[in-house]
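chain below, 467 aa
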Amino acid sequence: MEPTPATGGPDGRVTGVVLITVDSLRADALGPTAAPTLTELADRAATFERCFAAGNWTPFAFPSILGSAPVFDDSDGVGLGEGPALAEQLSRAGVTTAGFNAANGFLTGHWGYGRGFGRFEPFLDDSKRLAAHPTVKGWAQLATAPFRRAVGRLRGSDRPAVDVSHLRDVEGRAAAFLRSVEGPFFLWVHYMDTHTPYVPAPRHLRAVGTPGVGLLERLRAHLHTGLGRGIDDDTLGALRSLYRGAVHQVDASVGRLLETLEETGLGDSTAVVVTGDHGEEFQDHGHLAHYPKLYDELVRVPLLVDLPGAGARRVEAPVGHAALGPTVCDALDVPTAPFEAGSLLPAVGDGAPLDRAPVTSVAVRGPTVTHQPIPRRLDEGELLVSARDERYTYIRHTDTGRTELYDRADDPGERRDRSGDGTVPQSVVEPLHAATERRARRVGGDGDDRRETPDALDERLAALGYR
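prediction:
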């Protein structure tokens, strides 16, 4: 597809793109209470109502976001594939690149995500200090919350003393980059606050209307969840409240970054893209977090594209994260040739119709949904492939041949399996089935990814719950 000239800037050009990804951000997490900044952004941006992640968790989703091919395209392991990374394509064209990841161990140089970035910081602490682990940091913040609140009141602030999620680290580096950059640029920022454990500062809980989630409620919610015990409605409610507070915490940071864009004079010529890498489950289908399943709570994510001068727009066509790379390149007038998907810019700028082909996603499931360690490779479990169009969800279990089919128009929670009841026409099912077959045939390639994970990185992943 030929690049579409982007609007914006004094001379009509877009000279910068900021890509903001938020870990575990559900499509229904945004709103004026939990995310006022992003709600305001949506009022002037293109909002893609049906954006679907390429997988149920970060290592399966991100090859489609920062790479040029989906996960398992040329090997049986995770990480960026052999094709050009988005940052590499941009760097070769003279674009200054920077990436700041808030310590997600799956988004490090070990997995290829530093490729092409002139500045790259994953904020991993290779020391053995327990404080380097986000779960321990989260518990430390909870345990010391009363003391810190008292000190904060004396100082007139309740800013957390422990930067559990590295939000302030990431925000500071990103702001410094924006203040110093010259010429065309690409900035990627990844937030982790909405990944477990959810430990928002008290002011963000108050902002979403749940000031009553105190220390004991937080400890109880995290304890029961961490031990894998059954949780009651009160505990589930506390977790949801903490999650909403974490969304608000990210939203506030995004607001400060957008203010930096304006302060530096970059706002009028910078496109801003915001999405979640995958969603999060709160017992929608019986579990928490993001175990290997392909239902909407894990796969459907927000996608906002704010192109200066383009105006607000709602896009109903299904889109996948594979379109992000070509969209970023298109905005910066960089060739999109390495990418198979088309750019979203024509839809953003002119409302041009998009290809409505089904969007596929994958998961790999062990003997049970909660089997540990969660499979990362194709040979560690059964491959599940889903395909979605504007209305239907089709899920194929490739080993057993079992299929699931959901009509999201009258069953948005995807609870009534229609695969065997004959109520959905074959003319609808066949394209969805064909899409899952094409995706299943494509996985694995000729590569055998047996890279060993360094001990420090394994510790970090274990701290996030990935044993």
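The first strand starts at residue 16 and ends at 22. The domain at 16-357 is CATH 3.40.720.10 (Alkaline Phosphatase, subunit A).
thats it, cya
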